[in-house]
Amino acid sequence: MPIDAAKAVAAEPRTGEIAWSHKDVQLYHLGLGAGVPATDPDELRYTLESRLHVLPSFATVAGAGSPGVISGLSMPGVDVDLARVLHGSQTVRLHRPIPAEGTATATGRIAAVYDKGKAAVLVMRTEVADAEGPLWTNDAQIFVRGEGGWGGDRGPSARLEPPSGDPDRTVERPVREDQALLYRLSGDRNPLHADPEFAKLAGFDRPILHGLCTYGMTLKAVVDTLLGGDVTRVRSYTTRFAGVVFPGETLRIRMWRHDGAVRVTVSAAERDDAPVLADTTVDHT
After folding, report:
1. Which ranges constitute the DSSP H helices of 184-248?
2. What is the pLDDT of residues 60-111, one digit of tens each?
3. What ranges in 86-210 are assigned the alpha helix state H?
4. What is the overall mean pLDDT for the chain?
5. Furthest-apart CA pair in the chain: how many Å?
6. pTM score, two decimals?
7. How far apart are CA 282 and CA 234, in angstroms?
C-alpha cells in the first residue's frame, strides 16, 4: 500500500520560511474575481495597495502554500498518484489578522490518516507564525481514491445538519472562463485545473476550478454581505468540498445567520443547484 499511516503521522514536520507581499495578496484577490466594478470602493480594498486588507482565506496560498498539499503528498509514508487525489475539506483558523506583507515560519505535518474503505484521508496541518506569534492554522483533508481498506481508523464525521428555513441572503457569483488559469498563479499548479488531457485522466470532461478558489470566493461573499466588509471579524472558516465547479459556471451562495457564525451552502446554478460546498461555517466576532 502506498500509504503507511503510522510512518506518515510519525514523520518529522517540515518547516520552511514563507514570505508574501501586497502583490501576492492582490493577485489572490483577483483570482477570486475581486475588482468588479474596478472603481467600487468596496472592491478597491481587495485590489489597491494603499487600501489593502487581506481576506483570511489567503492563508491557503501565502508563500505559494508552502509547505502545502502537494509537498505533503511526498511526506515519508506517502506515495500516491496525483490523479487520484481530491481535496476533501479545508479549515482555516485565524489567530490574528493577516498583514498585507510579511515573513513567517510554516510548519507542516500529517496530523492523521483515516481509512474510509474506498479511499484514504490525509489530514495535513500547517501552522504559521511570525516574530509576533501565531498567525493561522490550516487543516486540509485530502482524499486519495483507491488507497483505503487496510482496517484503520475511519476518523470523525464532519457532517452537519443542513441549515433550516429560508436563507438570510442569497447571492450569485460568476466564474470566469479563465479564472482557474489566473487563480493557479497563486501557487496551486495542479494540471487538473488547466490541462484538458490530465483532467480526462482524472475522470473529468474538462479542467475544473480549484476547490480553494470556490472557498475564497465564498468567504469574500460572506464578508462583503453579512460582515460589513470587515475581514478582521473572521475567526475560522471551514468547508467540505461536495462537488466540482467548471469555469464559466455561476456559484449560488446561500447564507444563514447564527450567533457568532454564518452557515453557508454553495451550488452550481446552471446544473440544477448541484452541491459544491457543504458543511460550511464562518465563525466571527
Report:
1. 196-201, 211-226
2. 999 876 555 666 677 888 888 766 887 899 999 999 999 999 999 999 999 9
3. 179-183, 196-201
4. 93
5. 56
6. 0.92
7. 7
Dihedral sign (CA 223, 98, 192, 75): negative
75: nearest Cα among 137, 6, 143, 14:
14
**Do residues 26 and 47 lie in contact, with contact meaning Cβ atoms separated by under 8 Å?**
yes
**Can you say whether the dihedral through the CA atoms of 178, 88, 225, 172 is positive or negative?**
positive
Choosing from 193, 210, 224, 284, the catalytic residue is 193
Which residues, 6+ apart, have CB-to-CB distance to 29 below 8 Å?
35, 46, 47, 55, 220
Catalytic residue among 24, 115, 188, 224: 188
In the residue annotation, 272 being an active-site residue is answered as no
Sign of the Cα torsion 20, 22, 27, 30 reads positive
188 is catalytic: yes
Q: Left if phi > 0, otherwise alpha if psi is -120 to 50, otherwise beta: which for 52? A: beta
Q: How many residues in the chain? A: 285
Contact 268, 252 (CB under 8 A): yes
